Every structure is written in structure tokens, then in C-alpha cells.
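Hi there, hope your week has been kind to you so far. No rush at all, and the record is pasted right below.
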Amino acid sequence: MAGSEATYPVKITFDSPGACPPVYVAGSFTVPKWQPKELNYSLNKSDEDKVVEHPSYTFSRTFDLPVGTFQYKFRLGHGDWWVCDGKEVVVTDALGNQNNRLVVARNLRRLAIHLPK
């Protein structure tokens, strides 16, 4: 990404039943491209005040991204288990890999970011 290009903070979020730290995200926006970056995590509110056998977590990380369309995917743990967020748009790349899609778009009035919830 060019140094003079305007960027905007975009928060990537992931939660999935049974997902435990560490969780990584890699995409066409990471530097270098597709290099996994570890996500921060927090215990979900519903699990904070009780002891549960399998706590649930929300994972997130903020990236400064320029306007554009990007693809990304999550890696669960240190191995090679890659997943898409089924709650978000999934696309197939030129190599046949399925990835999530992220669109950062700017119109004349406001910045529109379509990203994971």
C-alpha cells in the first residue's frame, strides 16, 4: 500500500463456537500479503461471570486499509486449519480458494466500509 494513499481503520472480527486462542487472519491486505496476523481476543460477556467448560471468545484486530476490495481468511491455532466466516460474504479466488470479501469504498459524502460484524 502506497504511503501517500489515504487509509481508514477497519476492524476485522471473528467468533465461532469452539474457537479458542490463538486465531489469525491473513488476507490480501496483510503485509506481506496472506501472512497470518494474530487476532486479539476477549471472553464473551455471557461467559465472564460463570465457569464454563468451553468458553466462547470474540477475536478482532484493526487494520488501516485504503479504499479497495480485499479477500481474507482465518487460521485456527498454529496448524493449517483455515476457515471463512460463514456470516460474511464468501468468494472464490482464481485458484479455487474460498475467502471472505471485504470492501472499503468511499463516495462523495461518506466512507462506506462493508466488513465483518
About this structure: DSSP finds one helix and ten strands in the chain.
